[in-house]
Design brief:
The protein has one domain (about 10-160). About 70% of the residues lie in helices and about 0% in strands. The protein contains seven helices and no strands. Helix 1 (about 10-25) packs parallel to helix 4. The longest helix has 28 residues, at about 135-160. The protein starts with 9 loop residues before the first helix and ends with a helix.
């Protein structure tokens, strides 16, 4: 097992900025009906999401193993992780240019279901593999179960209401 190295991760900060900036903008451009649908969230999924959010945010910043050390085949995990975060940004651009409905918010992007939740979770999973960090992997799994689960629940409610 590889030893983990505590220290600041500039790549972690970049990933978090790519994650949080669109979400801050979104808070001013939520889809109509979001508050109503969010009121019905599964409490267990919500707890898993919150625990995962806090843990991922802290862990991605405090391990320097996520920074570029040297380029190897292992770096492909980092490359794919970053490409998924680029796709996440493109998903947000498409959402902000749309009518910003619930359907737009819970849509797929490049055949990836509920892309607003799925893309960053997969990106952080790949980042945890790149950094060989079991703690980030576990935190991302918790985040994914909660966040993707909530998004799928909301999408199902939208479909059921249609």
């Amino acid at each position: 097992m590889q030893h983990l190295h505590l220290g600041f991760s500039y790549l972690g900060l970049i990933f978090l900025c790519m994650l949080f900036i669109p979400n801050m903008i979104w808070s001013k451009y939520k889809p109509i009906g979001y508050e109503k649908i969010a009121a019905n969230e599964n409490k267990l999924l919500l707890w898993l999401e919150r625990i995962g959010e806090v843990a991922v945010t802290v862990l991605v910043l405090i391990f320097e193993d996520f920074n570029i050390q040297r380029i190897t085949l292992w770096s492909l995990f980092l490359l794919f992780s970053f490409l998924l975060m680029i796709c996440y940004e493109l998903y947000w651009i498409r959402y902000f240019k749309s009518k910003r409905t619930l359907k737009d918010f819970y849509s797929s992007f490049l055949f990836i279901p509920v892309a607003g939740a799925t893309l960053p979770v997969i990106a952080f999973l790949l980042l945890s593999i790149y950094g060989k960090n079991i703690f980030l992997l576990a935190a991302t799994v918790l985040l994914g179960i909660g966040h993707i689960g909530i998004h799928l629940q909301h999408k199902k409610e939208i479909i059921d209401q249609a």
